[in-house]
Amino acid sequence: MSNQPPKKLFFTIVIAVVNLLTVFPVCAKSIPLPMQPSESPVKNNSLVQNTGANESFQQGLNFAAQQNAASAEAAFRRVIQIDPNFAEAYANLGSILANQNKLAEALPNFQTAIRLKPNVPEFHYMLAQVLYAQNKMADAVESAKKARDLFKSQGKTQEANSLEQIIKEMGK
Fold it and tell me: 120: which DSSP letter?
């Protein structure tokens, strides 16, 4: 492993941590739906919109699980058209694009997801991966640290410790 260049080492570590964090940016899965049962989506006929967004989101997840990137991308774009505040759709679209090596297009999707839901550590972590792949090391480390700090504040010590190891490797 020490013969690998730093970027390859980082992604090797990331793959191990991905399973630990239950974030699957490789197949854009497991980002929960944004609406909690206690939240009411009824606002000026938005119930129909949110239902359509949720259905399209689930379709996107299913397509991603089947490794059908084109259909998953289309589904997540449809979600964003229906509900432009659906942070998880932006994050999943970013993951699909990043996996197609469309890093420049993936980046603003992660940034939008973070703007909409700044306290989701997985979003910061996925942004760090894209920034790292773009050789934007300082920004990647900053985003990874933010994810680590959010995991810590949410009591997810194991995830925070794993990210701490990644941050150390990124600094080498």
Answer: -
Instruction: Select from 144, 134, 171, 162 the least CA-distant residue to 16.
Output: 162
CA–CA distance, 143 with 120 (Å, rounded to integer): 12
Query: pLDDT tens for residues 71-127?
Result: 999 999 999 999 999 999 999 999 999 999 999 999 999 999 999 999 999 999 999
Q: Are 56 and 80 in contact (CB under 8 A)?
A: no
Return the amino acid letter for 11. F
Beta bridge partners of 24: 29
CA angle 81–29–160, rounded 5-degree value:
115
Could you tell me which residues come within 8 angstroms of residue 135 by beta carbon, excluding any fewer than 6 positions away?
7
**CB under 8 Å to 172, separation ≥6 — which residues?**
6
Q: Rounded to an integer, what distance in angstroms lies between the CA atom of residue 113 and that of residue 93? A: 10
- For residue 78 the two structure tokens come to 């449809």
Residue 146: is it exposed, middle or buried by C-beta count within 10 angstroms (0-12/13-18/19+)? Answer: buried
